[in-house]
Amino acid sequence: MNVEKVLLARPRGFCAGVEMAIKSLTWMVRVFEPPVYCYHEIVHNKIIVDRFETLGVVFVNNISDVPVGAPVMLSAHGSAPELVETAREISGISINAVCPLVTKVHHEVKVRSKKGYSIIYVGHREHDEAIGTMAIAPESVTLIESEDELDNIPDDLEMVALINQTTLSLDDWEGIRESAQRKFNSVWMANRSDLCFATTNRQLAVREISRLADTVVVLGSANSSNTVALENTARRYGAERVFRINSSSELPQDIAGVVGITAGASAPEDLVQEVISTLNPRDGSEDINVTIEDEYFPPPPELRDLFRALSDAVALSLLAPCGVNSPLDDDRARSASDTLNFLTQRVSTI
Length: 350
Ligand code: SF4
Known about the structure:
Layout: E1 2-10, H1 16-31, E2 36-39, H2 46-54, E3 57-60, E4 72-74, H3 81-90, E5 94-96, H4 100-114, E6 118-122, H5 128-134, E7 141-144, E8 160-164, H6 170-183, E9 187-188, H7 197-212, E10 215-219, H8 225-236, E11 241-245, E12 256-263, H9 269-279, E13 285-289, H10 301-317, H11 336-349
Parallel strand pairs: 1-12, 1-13, 2-3, 2-4, 4-5, 6-7, 6-8, 8-9, 10-11, 10-12
Helix pairs in contact: 1-11, 4-5, 7-8
This protein binds iron/sulfur cluster (SF4).
Iron/sulfur cluster (SF4) is lined by residues 15-18, 76, 99, 101-102, 166-167, 196, 198-199, 226, 265.
């Protein structure tokens, strides 16, 4: 490889929702004997899922595969209401690690459906987030994936709500929004869209590096919607070569010139650092910063309750006051990468 310089998109990698979900599952692994079950991949990243499997987490796509009484976590992408209920019934401890921004979209679907809207939901048909959101009010929602599919919807609908998956490509979304607004008399939307801040910020940053770099490397998995959107954005905004890879071992050997790097919202930063070392740029690396992200989502309420109860039990056994400390009190100060790396290293040395 003959790499001149690396341009690092900022922000990149873990978002607040992924941080919350990974830390929550890590806490479950620390508290319970394996196996801990997780309904769907906790986040769509192969490396993260592999690491959790090493720690004794069993990922299932069918909630009935969770044995009665076993601890289970529901993924960050959000689950159908019936499924959340079933998990509560069969499991000893059920914790829902849904991202609050997905919950907000669920709420919009529920409210608009009750008000009698026909809801057009823009998303990826097979994606866990889309499946969970559609299940909120299946009788009111029609899913479309592209502008073309708008043609299949009658144009005389009176009350139309346009709602979308949080991780779409900004450019694709804008095209669909404009077409829908031309087609229908009036369209309800949540501000301009339901795209989350993390999706928007990462795509704005990758636009910048794509204009400046010869090659763009996107770290993340093929089933991650926001990662694929980054890949498509890089192509659209001028990068001659774009590679989506899971880890540095997948880097092509003939990369040269200026290389831009970004990472999907579920890809860990240590993989980015590995890629930089492998590329070994002659003139070092430079951050291309479009904004600072400081969003933080606290652990799910069920997990906070669980830790409060455990702390109280320990305090009681020591004749100490209850309700004082919980290990989650300084959750914000810990990063998901550090928490997971610590646990992974600990297990590998046992
Ligand atoms: S990408 Fe957006 S919606 Fe998805 S977990 Fe991150 S913040 Fe939440």
